Structure formats: C-alpha cells, structure tokens
C-alpha cells in the first residue's frame, strides 16, 4: 500500500466525497479499522493457522493439506483485494504500509518452509525465493528517499506464478499433476530471479539519479570566471 496525503478545503466546510468513493477526510476517519487493514490482519492471522493445518498428522494427510491450501488461497485473494481497496477508497494508513508487505512475505515464507521441511520442495528453491523477496523489500527502503520502485508486469506475473506453484505443492498433487506443478514452480523460480535482477537495476539507477540530483541541488551556481568553466 502506498500513502495518499489527506486534502483539506478552505472556506465554508469540507467538500463532499465523490460518489462511490470515500474522500480523503473519510479515509482519515476510517483510521486503523478499515476494510483494507482488516483484510491484512486476516492474512496475518492465517499464517499460524496455515502452519497448523499443514503439519497435522505429520504433514502428509491429504485432507488437512486441502484445508491448508484453502487458508493459503484465502490469504492470496485478500492480498489482491486489500491493496485495491486501499488505493481506490483512500484507506491508506501507516499500519497498512508496514503490515501489508509483512503479511505477503509471511504466508509465502511459511508455505515454502513447511514444504521444504516436509521434503516436498528442495531447500534451494525456498532459499532463492525468500532471499529475493526479502532482498527486494530491503532494497526498496534503501532507495525510498530517491523514489519508489513500482511493481512491474513481470513482478505481478512472478507473484501469480509463485502463488499458483506453491498452492499446487500444498495440495500434494500426484501423477501428471505432480509433473505439471514442477514446471509451474520452475517458471516461478525463473521469474523470481529475472524480476529480482531487474529491480536491482532499477534501484541502482534510481539511487544514482537521486544522488546526482542532490549534488546538483547542493552545489553553488556557477559564476563567470569561476574555475572549471570555459569563457
């Protein structure tokens, strides 16, 4: 979620909110307890629930794995809706900015670690995905004063591929479905690495431009006859 500054109006009172959307003042009144944040909280609460369901009866009971998949699917769906609601209705809070990415990484990380611990997924796959996700998150904070790295189309495809692949592994599919899920996960890993490298490139470029702009803004204006300037 991204921040949207509240607007005010002068003169004779607040301007009515546009039809179908909450105004910025209404967003402020919604505060922490708005529907977008509630969905994020639900996603956070689903993480321990998912782990319990996933590991029931040693982690290989297909019925419990199906329930675990349901919890994972709900978490993925709420991830789509809470961000959309926050942007559409200006339901942006500091809590949402922090909790939303944490919830995203927590449910995916829990699923990957559980799958690897049960032997269903190689540990190197879990390591590649988690290192990429945590690294990109830290990198966004590294360059945040210079600008925001927007989610790319490749990044959205990566998220879809990861969610689909992990969900298929949680279901413990067999026969030809087991082969199919392997290739879906392979696509997810490739997208994870490729988009991660692209975000690194964007971050480095953004930081360089930001530092150059800061140096230009901080340097005194050139005067005739000053050193380094050709007359």
Brief digest:
This protein is an all-alpha fold.
Task: Write structural notes for this entry.
Helices cover 69% and strands 0% of the residues. It has 231 residues and is mostly helical. The longest helix is centred in the C-terminal third of the chain and has 43 residues, at 176-218.
Number of strands: 0
Unreliable stretches: 1-29, 226-231
Largest sheet: none
- Binned, the helix content reads 55-70%
Q: Kindly estimate the percentage of residues that lie in beta strands according to DSSP.
A: under 5%
Give me the number of helical elements. Answer: 7
Q: Roughly how many Å apart are the termini?
A: 51 Å
Structural class: mainly alpha
Mean residue pLDDT: 79
Order of helices and strands: HHHHHHH
Radius of gyration: 23 Å
Please state the overall shape, judged from the principal axes of the Cα atoms: globular
List keywords for this structure.
7 helices; 231 residues; disordered N terminus; disordered C terminus; mainly alpha; single chain; 69% helix; 0% strand; globular
Question: What secondary-structure arrangement, pairings included, does this model have?
Answer:
Blueprint lengths: L23 H7 L4 H20 L7 H27 L5 H24 L5 H21 L9 H18 L5 H43 L13
Helix pairs in contact: 2-3, 2-4, 3-4, 3-6, 4-5, 4-6, 5-7, 6-7
């Amino acid at each position: 979620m991204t921040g949207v500054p509240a607007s005010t109006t002068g003169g004779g009172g607040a301007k009515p909110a546009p039809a179908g959307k909450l105004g910025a003042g209404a967003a402020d009144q919604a505060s922490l307890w708005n529907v977008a944040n509630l969905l994020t909280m639900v996603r956070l609460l689903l993480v321990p629930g998912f782990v319990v369901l996933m590991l029931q009866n040693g982690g290989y009971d297909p019925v419990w794995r199906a329930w675990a998949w349901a919890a994972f699917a709900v978490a993925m769906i709420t991830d789509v809706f809470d961000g959309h609601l926050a942007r559409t209705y200006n339901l942006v809070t500091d809590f949402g900015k922090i909790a939303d990415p944490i919830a995203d990484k927590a449910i995916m990380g829990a699923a990957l670690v559980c799958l690897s611990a049960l032997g269903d997924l190689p540990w190197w796959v879990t390591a590649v995905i988690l290192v990429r996700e945590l690294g990109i998150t830290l990198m966004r904070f590294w360059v945040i004063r210079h600008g925001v790295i927007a989610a790319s189309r490749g990044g959205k495809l990566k998220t879809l591929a990861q969610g689909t692949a992990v969900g298929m592994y949680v279901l413990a599919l067999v026969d030809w479905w087991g082969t199919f899920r392997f290739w879906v996960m392979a696509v997810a890993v490739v997208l994870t690495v490729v988009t991660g490298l692209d975000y690194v490139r964007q971050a480095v470029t953004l930081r360089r431009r930001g530092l150059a702009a800061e140096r230009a803004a901080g340097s005194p204006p050139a005067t005739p006859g000053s050193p380094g300037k050709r007359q």
